[in-house]
Amino acid sequence: MAKHGKKYLAAKAKVDAGRAYSPEEALKLAKETSITNFDGTVEVHLRMGLDPRQADQQVRDVVVLPHGLGKTVRVLVFAQGEAAAIAQQAGADYVADSDEWITKIQNGWTDFDVAIATPDMMSKVGRLGRVLGPRGLMPNPKAGTVVPADDLPRVIREAKAGRVEFRMDKTANIHVPIGKVSFDVDKLYANMAALMDAIKKAKPAAAKGTYIKRVTVTTTMGPGIRVDPIQAQSMVVKE
Fold first, then answer.
1. What is d(CA 41, CA 8) in angstroms, rounded to the nearest whole number?
2. How far is CA 200 from the centre of its chain?
3. pTM confidence score
4. Nearest CA-CA partner of 202 in 90, 48, 97
């Protein structure tokens, strides 16, 4: 088993493992216990009371974080003709409008953070599942990344502003970044509040019992900090 270093152990000592913190306390503590020399990412991890094997108990949606993620988001759009021109005008970093682009990505090029496609391109994009799927880059109607040409400006703008997809994995957990350690607590709180609201709205009709069992806040390589799940679900964005 890997041993933790002195910095991690010192940070972990600041966290009371038996306590469920309020969201604001947890976010303050996350900033205090960040141990990286770079501007780490603050993440929220949720343990869901759902059965991931059941199709009617899946959780998948998107949320636009009010203060973004604190990084430059590179957007690639699969589109042709007029839609390609709209994507270019709307600020897409790359517009994949030819078979050469499909081949380039098939060969392993994935220097982008978000992929968006128009419906007519999905027959070609479908061939890229083995490359894009494992990286979470495959356009999907459920995630709002397969849209008609008229919607491209809005979706591109949201992606660059901090549009984040969340989905429950096979172990019934959800992992979502909500910003950088350098963000002040109010911005992290607002982003977390937006996320929690979106997850509540995405609750499947077939969900029974406790919807969210556990909420944890952490930073890149930092210790986990338990958040009171009831308080987390009651968060509202401060005016």
1. 16
2. 15
3. 0.81
4. 48
